[in-house]
Design a protein that fits this description.
The structure is a homodimer of 274-residue chains.
Chain A lengths: L10 E4 L9 H11 L3 E3 L2 H4 L4 H10 L3 E5 L10 H21 L1 E6 L7 H22 L2 E4 L16 H11 L4 E6 H4 L5 H7 L4 E6 L23 H10 L6 E3 L12 H14 L2
Parallel strand pairs in A: 1-2, 1-8, 2-3, 3-4, 4-5, 5-6, 6-7, 7-8
Helix pairs in contact in A: 1-10, 4-5, 8-9
Chain lengths: 274, 274
């Protein structure tokens, strides 16, 4: 396992951690000034802006872009809606390329019928493969915690995500592993080991107890119960050498704090609790 | 799949569904009067009472007892605490026998270190096996939804529960499958098929959207998104011919309703939505 201590250039910040309190230009400056090595912006911050100029600002700040968040959900009742989602995702992938993002994060969506949803997700991702190859933007499927199976994602374990990667059988498709979503999995060591070569991103935060809101009450690393050093060691033992990215959805705590304070605490915790 | 319609004697009520609004004697009368075939009481309703008399009342009401809820959590920091939990569970198993319960429901508990917790659960259940055999009370491990991995149970999938059954290798140990906890699982059909002969109970309720409280905001069958007929067909295709038991934790809705009203709606939904 790598020694993160003092090596903030190995660490990334997902802009959701600040709760979208400031325009992306300002967030980029803050993250670069704090010394992080990379940033992961969201579409709501980017679309409608001069994307190439944002990409230039990020590069000139010395930051990489880990991932671009996130896909329009694939499952929908009508074929026309599913086709529109695919086109929407292709447009966002062009923005990902303009930003210089290593990958496009796929939060896949779901529907009342999980089997249908899973088929529609597979079809939707398959339809993005030519664009992924031509733009050089990888597709990173993010398995979400099973608590989101009804409303956000029908891909809920690493094993399931890997099976989908196997089916798609294309080097442009891999996984984004977020500790918050996978820590509970009894198959975690085996599943992460099996993901060797297909781990495109690694997110950290913490699972607070009690959980007041499973979506927007996530914790700073060290404030909850996830054994983050263990999960990082599994991911790195599986060959992952990319950024350790902090992504915290925290409506009532971190989103209310100044970015400079959140950056200070993230740095400290990345070195001591991850 | 069995035809439930009109066959309420194939259906059971878990007393948690009424939110413990009345003494067990009254709940037994209500469930028997409604025409259900079985009941599953909780320790909080039974301990400190004349257990044999309650068992007699249940039998004389024409009801069976599916399961007795539920185990004292197995994992704990100190050996002495773990031993105390085992003794506590043995006492409860005697009550289960006195009630005539087919099984004792194991909600296993958890701890900060999931590996430790899982080992302690295996040790704890193993320590109950001689009692289970001598009393004729089966042990039904209930895998809980992964959202409870931090605070209620470190057994979170059917596959994981089956692996534990395999390790324990005793016909007295099997699984309690609750649709609310397992519906999201991409391995569900394969896991339920693999559980053939080891399914000791089957619970139904529904997953509401949005979920306001994952513990106490569960829905009546048909009010949420779980495909209950599909899951029942999987369970019955795997050889299960026991009761279909309703268990709904619903602090803000069903727990506030009169038992007679809840019984009326359960009956209707069991016949049309399960």
């Amino acid at each position: 396992m790598r020694n993160l201590n003092g090596h903030l250039q190995l660490c990334a910040v997902n802009t959701a951690t600040f709760g979208f309190q400031a325009p992306l230009r300002q967030v980029i400056d803050e993250v670069a000034r704090a010394g992080f090595g990379a940033i992961a912006p969201w579409r709501r911050e980017v679309e409608g802006q001069d994307v190439k100029a944002l990409g230039k600002q990020i590069r000139e700040s010395g930051l990489k872009v880990t991932g671009y968040c996130r896909s329009t959900y694939f499952p929908a009742e009508m074929i026309s809606e599913r086709q529109a989602a695919i086109e929407d995702n292709k447009r966002a992938m062009q923005d990902a390329a303009d930003l210089g993002a290593e990958c496009y994060a796929l939060v896949v969506g779901t529907s009342l019928n999980l089997n249908d949803a899973r088929e529609q997700v597979a079809e939707g991702i398959a339809a993005l493969l030519p664009t992924a190859r031509s733009l050089g933007v990888k597709l990173a499927i993010e398995p979400l915690h099973p608590v989101y199976a009804a409303d956000r994602a029908c891909i809920n374990t690493i094993a399931q995500g890997l099976a989908l990667c196997d089916d798609l059988n294309d080097g442009a498709v891999g996984l984004l592993i977020d500790a918050y979503h996978v820590w509970w999995d009894p198959a975690l060591p085996a599943s992460i080991a099996a993901a060797r070569g297909r781990i495109f991103g690694f997110h950290v935060s913490d699972w607070l107890m009690p959980v007041l809101d499973v979506l927007n009450d996530r914790g700073m690393m060290g404030d909850g119960i996830i054994d983050l050093p263990h999960i990082r060691s599994l991911v790195e033992d599986a060959g992952y050498d990319g950024f350790v990215e902090v992504e915290i959805f925290s409506a009532n705590n971190w989103w209310k704090k100044p970015m400079v304070e959140t950056c200070r605490v993230m740095k400290e915790r990345l070195f001591t609790r991850v």
